[in-house]
Amino acid sequence: MALPAPRHGLARALSKRGVCSRTQAAEWIRAGRVSVDGRVVRDPEFPTIAGKHSIAVDGRDLDAAPERHYVMLNKPRGLVTTARDEQGRDTVYRCFDGAGLPWIAPVGRLDKASEGLLLFSNDPAWSAHIADPAAGPDKTYHVQVDRIPDAVVLATLRAGVVDAGEFLRAKSATLLRAGERNAWLEIVLDAGRNRQIRRMLATQQIGVLRLIRVSIGALALGELAKGAWRPLTRAEVAALA
């Protein structure tokens, strides 16, 4: 017996198609820019069923599959990973000013103080796979810390720690290089939690000076300049799928 097609509110249906964010969709709907089966709908929670209802924005039918975009950014420190910030802080979308890109959503997040590889796409299924903690690719980080961890600390990070009742572990934690007072670690996560690396290190009384994501799966940040972006190649998109 076939399962019934999923029912979603109109704003969510637009965001799931990769057209815009859910917040932006709600604004468009309230402004009267969205129609369902030829009738303007102003309720963001108006129920729609995939494959049954025809949705249009500004008269443009969305039933045709949109062109998909896949982009990598070298996120600078100090930007927040959101489309709009209630506190007025600069967001990662500043890096795309004037690029003429359609709506693309972040694939996962990096916090304000973190930097490095951040993906964007308007392909919800592809993005969900990469962000999936069970099936998604590993994420590799280079982390500068305020002291030199010994082998016991690194083993503890790999074995796992508990913070705020949540079990956190690194798939890999190794010492890259050490100076007199600080060191660089390489930490690989296969299931990222909110601020996971900072929280794990804090349980060992270690502070983070810099945190840079250098790769997602086989996709490396490489020589991409800070604040710069580029589209992924077809091979790169397929390798992450």
TrEMBL record:
Record EC number: 5.4.99.-
Extent of the signal sequence: none
Gene3D superfamilies named in the record: Alpha-L RNA-binding motif (3.30.70.1560), Pseudouridine synthase I, catalytic domain, N-terminal subdomain (3.30.70.580), RNA-binding S4 domain (3.10.290.10)
UniProt xrefs under Pfam families: PseudoU_synth_2, S4
Residues in RNA-binding S4 domain copies: 8-77
Catalytic activity: uridine(35) in tRNA(Tyr) = pseudouridine(35) in tRNA(Tyr); uridine(2604) in 23S rRNA = pseudouridine(2604) in 23S rRNA
Keyword list, A-Z: Isomerase, RNA-binding, rRNA processing
InterPro entries the UniProt entry points to: PsdUridine_s_RsuA/RluB/E/F_cat, PsdUridine_synth_cat_dom_sf, PsdUridine_synth_RsuA/RluA, PsdUridine_synth_RsuA/RluB/E/F, PsdUridine_synth_RsuA/RluB_CS, RsuA_PseudoU_synthase, S4_RNA-bd, S4_RNA-bd_sf
Keyword Isomerase belongs to the record: yes
PANTHER family: PSEUDOURIDINE SYNTHASE FAMILY PROTEIN-RELATED (PTHR47683), RNA-BINDING S4 DOMAIN-CONTAINING PROTEIN (PTHR47683:SF2)
Protein family according to the UniProt entry: Belongs to the pseudouridine synthase RsuA family.
NCBIfam families, per the entry: pseudouridine synthase (TIGR00093)
Protein known as: Pseudouridine synthase
Organism: Noviluteimonas lactosilytica
